[in-house]
Write a structure and sequence with these properties.
- The protein is of the alpha/beta class.
- The chain has a single domain, classed as 3-Layer(aba) Sandwich (Rossmann fold), CATH 3.40.50.
- The chain contains nine helices and eleven strands.
- The protein is globular and about 50 Å long.
- 40% of the residues are buried.
Length: 239
């Protein structure tokens, strides 16, 4: 069954585009076809990944969602025999989320044989409260037939509140039946793994491109391969 992946989170700068790029790479690595769409109106990070052939689609006209453009995208998702990965920006989160709900988009996609998976990122540090609230809102608003995958991004700090880990928090315990899976992005050693990952992300390179790049020596390639293995192993459980 083909899938439609939507990366949704009201908070910006927490790793949504990273999640979208890795999902697209993972699917292609399994030999599956995938169309990648960046709908972020203000910070089209995903569009910078040339190897992913990302399509840029600005859905916003000021603060208003251009529903005609989104209608066209949904028709493509329904009609084309391929997977889709759709990255969304923080500024368009609310209108896009409302559109998905009001127009029964998830049900339409499911009726045409595709599984809808919503990915949301929870980040530590100063973004923790906002991203937890974003997760709670999505769970409340999304239909039961949506698979929700939570990405825990420790890059900005530990995901803990009052000594509780995410799985121990009330917001998770209350909604655990709605969570299809969890992907953990562990905090990396800033002088080795972290520096290599930052260099790769800044250059908007895929893991496959790293293997062909002369700008990364054998040690850097080895460390990034291990990062890839860890994330892919987790994605095998949820996609």
């Amino acid at each position: 069954m083909n899938q439609a992946h939507f990366i949704l989170q009201a908070k910006g700068g927490v790793g949504k585009s990273l999640a979208a790029s890795v999902i697209a790479q993972f699917l292609r690595g399994r030999g599956e076809s995938v169309e990648v769409v960046d709908t972020d109106p203000s910070n089209a990070t995903l569009f910078g990944y040339k190897a992913l052939n990302v399509q840029r689609l600005d859905l916003m006209e000021g603060t208003v969602l251009n529903e005609g453009k989104f209608d066209s995208l949904i028709m493509r998702i329904i009609s084309e025999d391929t997977n889709f990965v759709v990255d969304n920006g923080a500024s368009s989160f609310i209108p896009l989320n409302n559109y998905l709900i009001e127009n029964y988009v998830v049900d339409m996609i499911a009726e045409h044989g595709k599984q809808v998976i919503v990915h949301t990122v929870i980040a530590g540090g100063s973004s923790l409260t906002d991203t937890l609230n974003g997760f709670a809102d999505l769970v409340e608003q999304m239909p039961e037939n949506v698979r929700i995958v939570v990405w825990l991004n420790d890059h900005f700090g530990k995901i803990e509140y009052g000594g509780d880990t995410f799985e121990e928090m009330n917001v998770y315990q209350k909604n655990r039946d709605r969570v299809h899976g969890i992907v953990r992005l562990a905090k990396l050693n800033p002088s080795t793994f972290g520096a290599d990952m930052e260099k790769m992300l800044t250059a908007k390179l895929t893991f496959d491109e790293i293997n062909m790049s002369q700008d990364f020596d054998l040690m850097k390639k080895s460390r990034l391969f291990r990062v890839k293995q860890d994330i892919y192993r987790q994605l095998e459980e949820v996609i």
